[in-house]
Amino acid sequence: MKPLDIGIAGAGPAGLAVALFLARAGHRVEIIERFEQPSPVGSGLLMQPTGLTVLDALGLSSTIHGLGNRIERLHGADARSGRTVLDVRYDALSGGRYGLAVHRAALFTTLHDAVVAERIAVRTGISLAKAETRQARTVLHDVDGEIVGDYDLVVDATGARSQLVAASVVAPVIRELPWGAFWATLDCDGIDHDPRALTQRYDAAKVMIGVLPVGRAHPAEGRKVAFFWSLKIAEADAIRQAGLARWKAGIADYWPETAPFLDQIADWDQLTLARYAHRTALPPHADGIVFIGDSAHSTSPQLGQGANMALLDAAALAHALSSAASVEEALAAYAAARRNHVRLFQLLSYVFTPFYQSDSRAIAWLRDRLVATVAKIPPAPQLLASIVSGTLADPFARAGLQECRWLEAALREA
């Protein structure tokens, strides 16, 4: 295929990653971002072997490892009894896999700096409303109806609230999820916590509190944790009205060891309320526009899988364009390459989320007694580790990737 003119909507991790892949493949690329200054959104996330493999393919492994924090296990316990409810260890799998918790600013800066180094054009302050096909080209319009640009292909990486996918012929049905979370990024140097684990506490399935050590947002800063507390979105206003002190006291009652983190929260403005939705664009392309990341598919945010799958989308799309004879053929190949992996993890999220975010005490009882026991019996530990890693179904080959050699990578990054 000849080099293409490609417009990429959105300068988040998916948009930045796909811009790097496509520019390095020889395509003429520009990124269009609605903010005046591209910036990260959110607190921390857990990079899985899937997303780490993509970053390694982009030559960014050393940079992200220098900022992130290696995670060996996921451990959750009942807040009252202390009984272990969840214990997933990456080393249950052979090969040395691990997770890397990162601040979203670290992931953004790593990718954005690479985009700047490649001299990829970034146009800012433009809110996109729709795309239309004109004589085999795809034209982008802003919210005022003005033409922003026309391209051989448009990649929509604007996320779960994408206006472009909403205005397309494959606009997905959006199901807003009732549960979300308050998030905060807090200092952790000198505070007792497990630096190699995502640690959680539960009260049935109605309360989930978590601490994820995410390393540094920038090299000169101290280390941080992402602190989160799940809640029903409909109850957020009532919780705020009851007062910050009451909210903090409730968490400290469940988990007294979090007091040094709670002491850092002096205002509701330090907390971000994250909302989630389930949506799938089928197929993830239409009329000269292709959707990646949360524009194409979203679900509840299980262990950062959204960001990891978005990076896989970027690699798979670039691979499809490199091996197809036409744009149409490439988009069909991209959709086929990602279909099974995306559907599998959306299904797993749908099945597992109620065990940790719901009003059902019966489900929580089942989780604490039966599931927690079965999870200790082989091959369950290996199965859980592969689910967490994002590798229950191989996502690499059809994206043109070869999974990292993790033991060698660990020695290299040490």
From TrEMBL:
<keyword id="KW-0503">Monooxygenase</keyword>
<keyword id="KW-0274">FAD</keyword>
<dbReference type="Pfam" id="PF01494">
    <property type="entry name" value="FAD_binding_3"/>
</dbReference>
<dbReference type="GO" id="GO:0004497">
    <property type="term" value="F:monooxygenase activity"/>
</dbReference>
<keyword id="KW-0285">Flavoprotein</keyword>
<dbReference type="InterPro" id="IPR002938">
    <property type="entry name" value="FAD-bd"/>
</dbReference>
<keyword id="KW-0560">Oxidoreductase</keyword>
<dbReference type="InterPro" id="IPR050493">
    <property type="entry name" value="FAD-dep_Monooxygenase_BioMet"/>
</dbReference>
<feature type="domain" description="FAD-binding">
    <location>
        <begin position="5"/>
        <end position="343"/>
    </location>
</feature>
<protein>
    <submittedName>
        <fullName>NAD(P)/FAD-dependent oxidoreductase</fullName>
    </submittedName>
</protein>
<dbReference type="GO" id="GO:0071949">
    <property type="term" value="F:FAD binding"/>
</dbReference>
<dbReference type="InterPro" id="IPR036188">
    <property type="entry name" value="FAD/NAD-bd_sf"/>
</dbReference>
